[in-house]
Design goal:
The chain is an alpha+beta fold. It has six helices and nine strands. The chain has a single domain, classed as Urate Oxidase.
Length: 265
């Protein structure tokens, strides 16, 4: 049997489609890859990224070249930040011969923190999504989303109780549309500063006393959390739009409390 050479293989994906229906997004979803992310201090952090990559497909083409998405990630050399993600998007559009497309990169990002009294250090994890999309009508849009664990203490509980007040671990999710680069650390810090107290990976007894009393002296409703973050972002020139949500995993109820704010351009 005569072996078939690569030059004889048909490229079915590039063949014509006669239905004339354009596809908004076609690509790969859930691609896992080892990448590096640039940190605020310029150093790099290795991450296991989960990528969704897609392009718009003309109505006269049968399919896009799925393997080229993987080729692009395999060839990615520099660490990801906002400018690097935009450059990757541009390479993807050129490689797939498309005029619109989108890349979303999700990963767990660790920030080293120092306990407030003992000074012990530990890493705290945050879920991050960086996205870039381009459309010839609206241009390029870049979004950064962070999920930040914090502590909240109920003002009502503090006010009505003879001693103590119920508190809980909370999660603040910030998603911003950026007009200029902004670091993950900056968004995380905004959420932490607007909470009753921040969360640490490791605390000693003197630290536990500090954070307990800090939260008690700084009570916040879930509504206070999102409003505080919104005020900060309203004054941030690099943010054009944002979507915020805070969720309190209630310690005295078997349900969560949440609040959300959205500001569009």
């Amino acid at each position: 049997m005569t072996p078939v050479t690569p030059f004889a293989l048909a490229d079915v994906q590039s063949s014509a489609d006669h239905r004339g229906i354009a596809i908004d997004r076609a690509g790969v979803k859930g691609l896992r890859a080892p990448l590096r992310v640039r940190q605020a201090d310029g150093t790099e952090q290795p991450v296991v990224a989960r990528l969704d990559m897609s392009v718009g497909l003309s109505g006269h083409l049968k399919g896009t070249h799925m393997s080229r998405f993987v080729d692009l990630i395999e060839a990615q050399q520099c660490a990801l930040d906002v400018p690097a993600l935009v450059a990757l998007l541009q390479r993807m559009l050129a490689r797939l011969d498309a005029d619109r497309g989108e890349i979303a990169v999700a990963f767990t990002y660790f920030i080293r923190k120092t306990a407030p009294v003992s000074g012990v250090q530990s890493a705290l994890d945050h879920e991050v999504v960086m996205s870039a999309m381009h459309d010839p009508r609206s241009g390029t849009r870049v979004t950064l989303q962070v999920c930040v664990p914090v502590t909240s203490l109920c003002p009502c509980s503090k006010e009505i109780s003879a001693y103590g007040a119920h508190n809980q671990r909370s999660q603040v999710t910030i998603e911003v549309d950026l007009t200029a680069p902004m670091s993950i650390e900056e968004l995380v810090r905004i959420a932490e500063e607007e909470a009753s107290c921040e969360v640490y990976g490791l605390l000693k007894r003197p630290d536990e006393k500090f954070v307990t009393e800090r939260a008690y002296d700084n009570p916040k409703f879930v509504e206070d959390l999102v409003r505080g973050v919104a005020v900060r972002l309203n004054g941030e020139e690099r943010v054009s739009c944002y979507r915020l949500m805070a969720e309190n995993f209630e310690s005295i109820h078997n349900h969560s409390a949440f609040a959300a704010i959205k500001r569009e351009a």
